[in-house]
Amino acid sequence: MDHNDDESPLYLFDCSFVEKMGLKIGEESQNHYWIPACFGEDLFDVFKEQRPDRRWLIIGPERSGSSFHKDPNATSAWNAVIRGSKYWIMFPTGPSYPNPPGVYVSEDQSEVTSPLSITEWLLGFHAEARKTKGCKEGVCRAGEVLHVPSGWWHLVVNLEPSIAITQNFVPRAHLANALAFMRDKPEQVSGFGNDVKNPYALFVAKLGEKHPDLLTEGMAEMERLKAGKKRKWDDLVKAEGDESFGFGFGGGDEEDVP
Known about the structure:
The chain is an alpha+beta fold and 258 residues long. The protein has helices spanning 17-21, 118-130, 175-184, 199-210, 212-237, and strands at 12-14, 55-60, 65-69, 76-83, 85-91, 104-105, 112-113, 136-141, 145-148, 153-158, 162-169. A hairpin with a 6-residue loop joins strand 6 (104-105) and strand 7 (112-113).
């Protein structure tokens, strides 16, 4: 890992590291690490042993990393650097925010096309990206933790040989996002075992058992967001009581979902 000259080095993800290494998680002194309390509860915990893959040990040499993507199942994430340092560049998602420069997304957002390597993107689009609306960038070093909100585009590159732990979760603030993703894009839901045939139905059932009030709130918020998107589309394609038609971009009343 310390002597690698590849342009796009291998980047290793292990979702079973806790079990393989016999690690204990929790704030007790004898445990190996704990989940930062500031991120609150993880509503995917209701799945128990049926929950999708959620945590990874990530190891890579200098120049390794991940090209632009959003985290799976509309989850949020935290990333804790144990060794080394990582450069992050991130963009929020919303009707008034463009996709990152050089990133092209299919209509249903199931396919993402970008330059072949992180190096190519940095050489061709980095300067433009830093001037793009919503851009956030920074370096995380050993001992620091970064939060990736649900739906945010992000690219990560290791500035030196690095080791990190990351975990995806569903906080209360983004429950509606997760519900909508699982209901409306079942073909894009990932990480579940073969025994889970309908992740959305299972999530609704288990959440209703443990947090019925939260489920009610989340379902109502999901419908409100859907209605809001439909209203914006209707406003674009028709002008009530007026034969004229027009549309604009970047209006101040648009609702963005970070």
